[in-house]
Structure formats: C-alpha cells, structure tokens
Amino acid sequence: MKLLAESLQEFRTRKLEEGVADKYAAQKFGIQDKEDEFEKQYQQHKSTKKGNVIGQVKGKPLVKNPSDINSFPPGARGVITKEGDLYLATDVEDTIHIDILKVLKEKGIIKSKVTGWEDPNDLGDYGFATVQRIWNKPVFAVGESYIIPKPKYAEERESVLSLFKPYFEAVQKKNPNFKFIYNTPRSAAKKTLSSAEYEKYKTLGS
C-alpha cells in the first residue's frame, strides 16, 4: 500500500512538472500546450452550437446572436449592428475587433470602412459599435478602443457614452440573455464583479 501511494505521488509530481514545462515552453518558445489547444478547440466547437456561425475569423468561428456564452472565452470581442445583432468571436488570443469587422465587411453585413471608427461621435456614420465581454460574465461593455473622456470630465463622458445607447438598446432586445452596459470595460466591470473579482480583473485584464 505504501509503495502504491509513493508511486501515485511520483506520477502526480511528474505530471505536474510536465505541465509546468509545457506552460514554460508555450510562453518562452511559442510551443503550444496540446492539452490547452485541445480545450480551446473544444470550447470553440461548443460555441458553434450556441448560435449561427456566419464565418471564420483567423480560422475560428464567428457566431451571430449566440444563445449563451458559457463556452466563449473571457473578454471575447464582438460587434453589434444598429439592427441589434451581436457578432461574437470564439477566440480572444489572436482576434481584435478589426478582424471581426473585416469579415462582416466581406459578407456585406456592414457597409462602411473598417478603420477610423474609434471616435464615438462617428458612430452614426459607421452603423456598428464594438463590444467586449466582461471577464467570464454574461455582460458586455463598450469596446476598449473607443476614445472616451476620463471620469473626471463627467458631463462630457456621459454625453459621449450616451451615443452608444441606441445600439445597446437594440442588441439588448435581440439578446435578452445577456446584459449590455454602455460604459467602458473598466467601469462596467466595477459594477458587475465582486470586490475580489474586480481586483483580479484589474491585474489580469478582461
């Protein structure tokens, strides 16, 4: 029995060391951890079951109006249209908003150019708004690339954020399973997360 326990402990230690080595190799040399890659692909596959896949963003599914986002990554990036549709990427590591916009442009879903949209005052000219998921919650906020006045300029900030209201109200109607907050990710996170979660969010990001 003692020998079995020692063998089991040795096995666990070896697996732990292998796992650490895999993580180090992934960070240092860009060698992908096979278990991590399998898990990511599995989650992306699950994501495709939750909505209408309308295309691929860098080889990963882009889903329209998913029914739930439990299998989507924390901080997932998306785009909402003035009609209230949500287009959400299933990968966050290699995907930025412009990658999603390029696919939507190619498919004729958006008509405007896909660059230069960071000024909220131009929202009406573009017909879309970018969003991102707050951590692992069913909550979305304004995309972090927008130029938003700092909180100390309260009146101006409120005025700029109100420009997103029509888009967020439209997407909320079509996607009632989620919460859409037309505020910056940091402010939305502060309202959404617990104190402990928010401290971790500030350190790790989305």
Topology of this protein?
Elements: H1 2-29, H2 34-48, E1 52-57, E2 60-64, E3 77-81, E4 86-89, H3 97-106, H4 123-126, E5 128-133, E6 139-142, H5 154-161, H6 165-174, E7 179-181, H7 185-192, H8 195-204
Parallel strand pairs: 6-7
Antiparallel strand pairs: 1-2, 2-4, 3-4, 3-5, 5-6
Helix pairs in contact: 7-8
Instruction: Count up the helices.
Output: 8
Radius of gyration: 20 Å
Strand content: 15-25%
Q: What is the 3D form?
A: globular
Poorly predicted sequence stretches spanning 5 or more consecutive residues:
1-8, 11-21
- What is the straight-line distance between the termini? 47 Å
Helix content: 40-55%
Order of helices and strands: HHEEEEHHEEHHEHH
**What's the number of structural domains?**
1
Global structural class: alpha+beta
Nearest-integer average pLDDT? 84
Largest sheet properties: 7 strands, mixed
Total strands: the figure is: 7
**Strands of the largest sheet, in order across it?**
1-2-4-3-5-6-7
